[in-house]
Amino acid sequence: MDTKIQTSTRCLDKKAVKIYPDQEAASVYVAQRIAQMIIQRQREGKQAVLGLATGKTPIRVYAELIRLHREEGLSFANVVTFNLDEYYPIVPTHEQSYVHFMHRHLFDHVDILHSHIHIPDGTLSPEIIQEYCISYDRKIEEYGGLDLQLLGIGRTGHIGFNEPGSAPDSTTRLVDLSEITRSDAIDDFGGEDKVPRQAITMGVQSILKAREIIFLAWEKRKAEIVRKALEGEVGEKVPATYLQNLPQVEYVLDKEAASMLQRQEWSDR
Ligand code: GLP
């Protein structure tokens, strides 16, 4: 391992927390983890089923995966993806749609098959959404479940768009976005009235079924919610707390996002 990278990999309360000096080093590590998983599945003659996230946080991870594809021959031919969420309603060509985001930051630059890409459809008519959501979860199961899920965290403690109040057994569904989440998106959409009020999100249960989960958070602005997510009481007020004590979860943080953690034993800081 690169000695410049200062990591802590203690497992306490079954939590694995890695704290990197910056998001660059952390992102390279996460991309390596994903690449190893893809290669391992290739050797087994199998598909790698990835759950993917949007937002600013994973952008550098995707950039590193593109570099591995271009410079080191990493193929995505055996990769199948399921994105966590999509605004509703939204057309795929909208600059803020997650379809647009994923193509811009990853899919257009690697050799993934278009038929292997799954992103919730923000154009459906309301009466067929419930059936569509059931089929989204069913399709994940048909592929044998998610091998690895990438997760960011919103200011409300949401994972995907599972806002406060989401139940641990929730499945993929149409949800209302909280005012905090909508206000965080105002700049991107260019006005409060332009931010969608709803989204389709994979449910908490759908996420927690993944065989590996990598939770990412960088920067000071995430420090308070990271503390609540890792150290707060588990419950619907902060849906990210549902990840606590799950053996398949690894938290990958930069120093700033980890700066308000109080359990010293999680790091060598
Ligand atoms: C959106 C996404 C989440 C993401 C969150 C944080 O709400 N639906 O999946 O984790 O944004 O975004 P950022 O990484 O930009 O802080």
Explain the overall architecture:
- 31% of the residues lie in helices and 18% in strands.
- The protein is of the alpha/beta class and 269 residues long.
- It has eight helices and eleven strands.
- 40% of the residues are buried.
- The strands form two sheets. It has an eight-stranded mixed beta sheet, covered by helices on one side. Strands 5-9-8 form a three-stranded antiparallel beta sheet.
- A hairpin with a 2-residue loop joins β1 and β2.
- The radius of gyration is 18 Å and the shape is globular.
- α1 crosses α2.
- The structure holds 2-amino-2-deoxy-6-O-phosphono-alpha-D-glucopyranose.
- 2-amino-2-deoxy-6-O-phosphono-alpha-D-glucopyranose (GLP) binds next to loops.
Which helices and strands occur, and which strands form pairs?
Blueprint: E1 11-12, E2 15-20, H1 23-43, E3 48-52, H2 59-72, E4 79-83, E5 85-88, H3 98-105, E6 117-118, H4 126-142, E7 148-151, E8 173-176, H5 179-184, H6 186-189, E9 198-201, H7 204-208, E10 212-217, H8 223-231, E11 249-254
Parallel strand pairs: 2-11, 3-4, 3-7, 4-6, 7-10, 10-11
Antiparallel strand pairs: 1-2, 5-9, 8-9
Helix pairs in contact: 1-2
Bound molecules: 2-amino-2-deoxy-6-O-phosphono-alpha-D-glucopyranose.
The site of 2-amino-2-deoxy-6-O-phosphono-alpha-D-glucopyranose has 13 residues, from loops.
Distinct ligands: 2-amino-2-deoxy-6-O-phosphono-alpha-D-glucopyranose
Helix content: 25-40%
Strand fraction equals 15-25%
Strand order of the largest sheet: 1-2-11-10-7-3-4-6
